[in-house]
Amino acid sequence: MQDQAQSREDFEARLRAIGAQRYHDRHPFHKRLHGGHCTPDEVRAWVINRWMYQSRIPMKDAAFMSRVEDPDLRRHWRKRIEDHDGTVAEGGGIRRWLALAQAVGLDPDYVASGVGIMPATRFAVDAYVRFVREMPLLDAVAASLTELFAPRIHAQRIEGLLAHYDFADDTSLAYFRKRLTEAPEDVQFGLDYVLTHADTRERQDAAAAALTFKTDVLWAQLDALWHGYVEGNIPPGAWRPGEGMAP
């Protein structure tokens, strides 16, 4: 019967199939980026707009934790905030992303200000933060499971950027190298949580829908980049080549 819960194995396969079909490593912008076909300004536009997403990750995780009553779940989840915010001295993933911004010729303060973010990027990322803040905890955790597929794209990105772009080196790509070890640990906990708590067909369907929603958030950001900077339809208020360059 369709209402019967899937087995743990079948449900995991269902979640992984969503990534295989819908994760943003399939988007033509990433193929263009990793293949060395992006112009310097297209790379800069990607770095600027992706900053919006990077900067909101610890904020959405803090919003999630504010609703969690289970101390064990909070202990596991707060590592995600620490990974991105880091310490005062080290700075974590956010500071590593700003090192990438500087490497591609941008002023890190300009990027961190959020000035020049495309409207579509802002709407997509804000929708994700709102989803995590308002939806059931199971759905919020399920949305994070795009991390199942992240190590693959990080490895492709490191290889492609090193092969094709002069700015790529150990410092500029430190964010992606670090995520190769951080993401698997995070996702193993999240996957086990979803597989354990999605114990009815209704909850499984909701979790699958949440993961699909998150893939849409990531895909929509790249659609906006392609329309704005590959096709040349930069929206009002968005970054324009020559702005926000490093001194």
Automatic annotation (TrEMBL):
<dbReference type="Pfam" id="PF03070">
    <property type="entry name" value="TENA_THI-4"/>
</dbReference>
<keyword id="KW-0560">Oxidoreductase</keyword>
<dbReference type="InterPro" id="IPR039068">
    <property type="entry name" value="PqqC-like"/>
</dbReference>
<feature type="domain" description="Thiaminase-2/PQQC">
    <location>
        <begin position="13"/>
        <end position="223"/>
    </location>
</feature>
<comment type="pathway">
    <text>Cofactor biosynthesis; pyrroloquinoline quinone biosynthesis.</text>
</comment>
<dbReference type="InterPro" id="IPR004305">
    <property type="entry name" value="Thiaminase-2/PQQC"/>
</dbReference>
<keyword id="KW-0884">PQQ biosynthesis</keyword>
<comment type="function">
    <text>Ring cyclization and eight-electron oxidation of 3a-(2-amino-2-carboxyethyl)-4,5-dioxo-4,5,6,7,8,9-hexahydroquinoline-7,9-dicarboxylic-acid to PQQ.</text>
</comment>
<dbReference type="InterPro" id="IPR016084">
    <property type="entry name" value="Haem_Oase-like_multi-hlx"/>
</dbReference>
<dbReference type="InterPro" id="IPR011845">
    <property type="entry name" value="PqqC"/>
</dbReference>
<protein>
    <recommendedName>
        <fullName>Pyrroloquinoline-quinone synthase</fullName>
        <ecNumber>1.3.3.11</ecNumber>
    </recommendedName>
</protein>
<dbReference type="GO" id="GO:0033732">
    <property type="term" value="F:pyrroloquinoline-quinone synthase activity"/>
</dbReference>
<dbReference type="GO" id="GO:0018189">
    <property type="term" value="P:pyrroloquinoline quinone biosynthetic process"/>
</dbReference>
<comment type="similarity">
    <text>Belongs to the PqqC family.</text>
</comment>
